[in-house]
């Protein structure tokens, strides 16, 4: 018997793919990484996943876990050796339980994020994790990368929204930590260890997540501002005025909006793009009523305009208008694809330093690469920037060849501002080799020790986060 035949015995012949059937799962969403695989398997439940892992451990065969394949760093794409098994979680798509008294929802890892949001809404609750890819990304992938999204300023990252996990270990054991407890000080926090580990320490198969009361009123507004300094000041003003009601605070450059207008003409943009160089998209969630929300938004934003920190504002009056404003923000990554392949940086900077970082880093890039386009947007409420760089007009050919040098300029600048080279997309293949240059050495050594302890044969997503050659 071969591993391929053993896998067929475990999950069924029709759920072990090879050849052309496997091809769609071998390239990442951005088309940057394409690998090879011995097989693509689609287990039906956690027990089958455990069986698959035990087989791979027996044959010392790498396992790459893949959910919705919406990652941006190649973390769910196999390498080029062709010796890996790609394990899909899309058949584990059940909502296991909803507990409205405990405000929790327990789901399998292959559940689409939007499905979880809808299930929460149907019982009068909110699951606040929200991403542009929410219609196709899975909760397992969200947890594997500790996704952030647009409501981090109020609710936190995926880690903050998770109470318990079920995980298959590298030995094929099933750890059932799905308790819906908000207090549990019984030793090391294994949950937080697996979240953000990108499938290199264990395979997340289910999660118990926090639910929140469904807001009675949601108000959205787009604010025109003169510069990023003003945006940081506006954030302070709105935090003071709205308190915990402020759920979203997105920084968007006019270049991003212009790209959406040019390349995605069906997206409604209700203003002149060149009116201001920068915009802030905000959202508040009010638990009183619509009138209270209206009065509060008009008061707080009105005061900001009177103070001169906001130049102008569009306040959505209907749900459709609110959706239209958010659609602009969510369309930016798709407009970027139309513009051409850019060099992307998912980074975190202390909020107080964001303006200085952008100004100084832009200048450094222009000095070295005159005419590059700065495609900057992100979740300013938590300091997460998508600091992307596009080719000068008419110079797209060979632009990606500049990535290594450009990354060095950007990431060296991030380090000077005590930032992080990865905020919410993970490390994957894309940043694995440069992580040692920017990660504290003691922290990196501890990561290696954890990897060796939990995955001694290095079969779980090898070549991601930590290079296998660094482990031994």
UniProtKB/TrEMBL annotation:
Keyword Flavoprotein set for record: yes
Annotated ranges, domain FAD-binding PCMH-type: 33-214
Lineage top rank: taxon: Bacteria
One Gene Ontology term from the biological process aspect of the record: respiratory electron transport chain
Key word Chaperone present: no
PANTHER family documented for this protein: BLL6224 PROTEIN, D-2-HYDROXYGLUTARATE DEHYDROGENASE, MITOCHONDRIAL
Protein known as: D-2-hydroxyacid dehydrogenase
Originating species: Pelistega indica
């Amino acid at each position: 018997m071969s591993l391929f035949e053993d896998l067929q015995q475990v999950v069924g012949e029709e759920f072990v793919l090879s050849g052309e059937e496997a091809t769609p799962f071998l390239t990442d969403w951005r088309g940057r990484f394409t690998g090879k695989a011995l097989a693509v398997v689609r287990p039906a439940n956690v027990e089958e996943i455990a069986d698959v892992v035990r087989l791979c451990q027996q044959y010392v065969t790498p396992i790459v876990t893949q959910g919705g394949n919406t990652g941006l760093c190649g973390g769910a794409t196999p390498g080029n050796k062709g010796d890996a098994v790609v394990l899909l979680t899309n058949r584990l798509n059940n909502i296991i339980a909803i507990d409205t008294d405990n405000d929790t929802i327990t789901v399998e890892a292959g559940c689409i994020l939007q499905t979880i949001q809808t299930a929460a809404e149907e019982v009068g609750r909110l699951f606040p994790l929200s991403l542009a890819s929410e219609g196709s990304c899975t909760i397992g992938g969200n947890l594997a990368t500790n996704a952030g999204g647009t409501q981090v300023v109020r609710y936190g990252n995926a880690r903050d929204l998770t109470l318990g996990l079920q995980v298959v270990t590298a030995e094929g054991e099933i750890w059932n930590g799905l308790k819906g407890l908000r207090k549990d000080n019984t030793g090391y926090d294994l949950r937080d260890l697996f979240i953000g580990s990108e499938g290199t320490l264990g395979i997340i198969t289910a999660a118990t997540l926090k639910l929140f009361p469904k807001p009675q009123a949601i108000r959205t507004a787009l604010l025109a501002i003169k510069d990023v300094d003003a945006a940081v000041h506006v954030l302070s003003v709105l935090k003071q005025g709205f308190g915990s009601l402020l759920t979203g605070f997105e920084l968007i450059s006019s270049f991003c909006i212009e790209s959406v207008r040019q390349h995605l003409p069906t997206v409604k943009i209700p203003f002149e793009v060149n009116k201001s160089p920068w915009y802030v998209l905000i959202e508040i969630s009010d638990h009183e009523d619509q009138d209270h929300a209206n009065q509060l938004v008009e008061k707080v934003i009105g005061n900001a305009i009177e103070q001169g920190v906001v130049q102008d504002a569009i306040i959505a009056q209907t749900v459709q208008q609110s959706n239209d404003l958010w659609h602009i923000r969510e369309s930016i990554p798709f407009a970027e694809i139309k513009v051409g392949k850019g060099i992307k940086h998912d980074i975190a900077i202390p909020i107080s330093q964001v303006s200085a970082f952008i100004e100084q880093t832009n200048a450094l890039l222009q000095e070295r690469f005159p005419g590059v386009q700065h495609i900057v947007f992100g979740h300013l409420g938590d300091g997460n920037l998508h600091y992307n760089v596009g080719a000068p007009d008419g110079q797209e050919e060979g632009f990606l060849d500049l990535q290594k040098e450009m990354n060095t300029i950007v990431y060296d600048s991030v380090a000077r501002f005590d930032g992080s080279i990865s905020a919410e997309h993970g490390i994957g293949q894309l940043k694995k080799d440069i992580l040692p240059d920017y990660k504290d050495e003691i922290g990196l050594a501890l990561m290696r020790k954890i990897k060796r302890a939990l995955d001694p044969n290095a079969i779980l997503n090898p070549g991601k986060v930590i290079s296998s050659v660094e482990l031994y």
